[in-house]
Design a protein that fits this description.
Layout (H helix, E strand, L loop, with lengths): L2 E3 L4 E3 H4 L5 E10 L10 E8 L11 E2 L13 E3 L13 E6 L9 E8 L2 H4 L6 E10 L5 E6 L9 E10 L2 E11 L2 H9 L3
Parallel strand pairs: 1-10
Antiparallel strand pairs: 2-12, 3-7, 3-9, 4-5, 4-8, 6-7, 8-11, 9-10, 11-12
Protein name: Putative stress response protein, TerZ-and CABP1
InterPro entries: Stress/Tellurium_Resist, TerD
Family: Belongs to the CAPAB/TerDEXZ family.
């Protein structure tokens, strides 16, 4: 059975799933029954950060227009954009091979943003049942899950979770931090000065 985390909780992936090397990060959400006149398009993105908590390069920002990390083994791979979020289960997924993630990557930040939120007058207060989960690719078993329960009525970007290295092992932090300003707010936060 998967470990369920609350906002701010951290867990060692090695302790809860010994030998875990390849995962997929599944992100899902549902739109509340509100009519903004336009479909919602939520996008998962991943920021590969160095020890300075900044993007190593522009190519270390993984999203629907840059699906793989720049390392030769493509250790981080976004599986593609889901334009509607319709249906149950994972709406977008990112595969990660921990053994092949370059040593220069200290942290992997997993975020969700609303595409054209300002133009479409949309925010995360109109979204429900948002979650992030870690699944062992080998066994296809869910290892850990974080369900968002907060109401983000003005936010258009969310940092869902961080995967980070500590003492030679990968750990997960259930972040759940909301931002106004959509994807640009997150890019501003992680771009090197």
């Amino acid at each position: 059975m998967a470990v369920s985390l609350a906002k701010g909780q951290r867990v060692s992936l090695e302790k809860i799933a010994p030998g875990l090397t390849e995962i997929f990060v599944g992100l899902g959400w549902d739109v509340k029954a509100v009519d903004t006149g336009v479909d919602f398009d939520l996008d998962a993105s991943v920021f590969l950060l160095g020890s300075n908590e900044k993007l190593i390069s522009d190519k270390h920002f993984i999203f629907y227009n840059n699906l793989t990390s720049p390392d030769a083994s493509k250790s981080v791979e976004h599986t593609g954009d889901n334009l509607t979020g319709a249906g149950d289960g994972d709406d977008e997924m990112v595969k990660i091979n921990f053994k092949q993630v370059p040593a220069e990557v200290d942290k992997i930040v997993v975020a969700v943003t609303i595409h054209e939120a300002q133009e479409r007058k949309q925010n995360f207060g109109q979204v429900q049942n948002a979650f992030v989960r870690i699944v062992d690719l080998r066994t296809e078993k869910e290892v850990v899950r974080y369900d968002l329960v907060e109401d983000y009525s003005t936010e258009t970007a969310l940092i869902m979770a961080e995967l980070y290295r500590k003492d030679g092992e990968w750990r997960l932090n259930a972040v759940g931090a909301g931002y106004q300003g959509g994807l640009q707010a997150l890019l501003d936060r992680y771009q090197p000065n």
